[in-house]
Amino acid sequence: MSLLQLIIIATLQGFTEWLPISSSAHVLLASGYFGLEGRDELLINAVSNLGTLAAMLLYFRKDVASAVVGGFELAAAPVTRRPLSSGARLALCILVATPFALVVAALYETVLPAEVQDALRSAYTVAGATIFFGALLWWADARGARNRTEADMTVWHAILIGATQAIAAIIPGTSRSGITMTAARALGYERAEAARFSMLIGAPILAAAGLYGALGLMDAPEGGLVTLQDGMIVAGVAFVTGLASIAALMAILRRMSFLPFVIYRFALGIALILTTPALGLF
To answer: Looking at residue 226, what is its pLDDT?
Structure first.
């Protein structure tokens, strides 16, 4: 692949990963246009997650540090029997939000037949998911004012929000960040809080996906379409654009609703449906 193609794909992945508009829809579109498909497309998409993960860890470094310290406190809790601090509670919520989606993603990669995976990654599936889950986000966001914050987060809420990530692991176009923000809004959390928790619980998923992509590129044959060096370029660009998208998202949600993202999802889904037969991207 050319450097320009890599930068375009990485920019799309980095900028859309944290926005509720489905990074997979954008990356599939660009990959199809550039002729990148199958295992190569999956590996590049996966390794870019290392860049977007690093961006999130940097932006929310105080929350991340609090959760890491809280994790040690959580491990010692059965011995000390002390009430959990906010950091320990955050660490617990991130932990319980992760396993179900990881198991589903692993089963998707190892058990689901290739032809079924290809069908799920078709342009029409992506378009339908983009529109449907955009409508669901609009419904959850428009139900009325909600003011729950992290202090109100319960283990069951964390499990429910985290479990929705499994849908995004199976159906491209869902948007992992979008579906978790939808669940958080439906449970009554403020917009900015819903986005922040969505990004924090995404860390283990992105770390696993990024590791999968990096290991896959290490085993890539010489002279192949994508290489480990390509993956490093993608991760670096995704880091920069991911950091910018997080800052933009948090600024937007402190001032307005999710409606602009919903409208964009509708437009993207319709565009995919109308242009796919003509362009033959998938």
So the answer is: 60
CA gap 31, 279 in Å, rounded: 13
- The rounded distance, in Å, linking the Cα atoms of 95 and 98 is 6
Contact yes or no for 253/195 (Cβ under 8 A): yes
Is there a contact between 75 and 242 (Cβ–Cβ < 8 Å)?
no
Contact 188, 146 (CB under 8 A): yes
Long-range contacts (CB closer than 8 Å, 24 or more residues apart) made by 144-151: 146/185, 146/188, 146/189, 146/190, 147/188, 147/190, 148/187, 148/188, 148/189, 148/190, 148/193, 149/189, 149/190, 149/193, 150/86, 150/90, 150/193, 150/196, 150/197, 151/86
The two tokens of residue 149 are 């914050």
Higher pLDDT, 153 or 105: 153
- What are phi and psi for residue 208, nearest 5 degrees? -65, -45
Q: How do residues 220-277 score in pLDDT, each as one tens digit?
A: 555 555 666 777 888 899 899 999 999 999 999 999 999 999 999 999 999 888 876 6
Burial of residue 165, with CB atoms counted within 10 A of its CB: 0-12 exposed, 13-18 middle, 19 or more buried: buried
**For residue 114, how far is the Cα from the chain centroid?**
22
Average pLDDT over residues 169-197: 93
Is the sign of the CA dihedral 63, 235, 133, 112 positive or negative? negative
Q: What is the DSSP letter of 188?
A: T
- Give the 3-state secondary structure of residue 258: coil
Instruction: Output the six-digit token pair for 250.
Output: 């948090």
Token pair of 148 as six digits: 């729950």
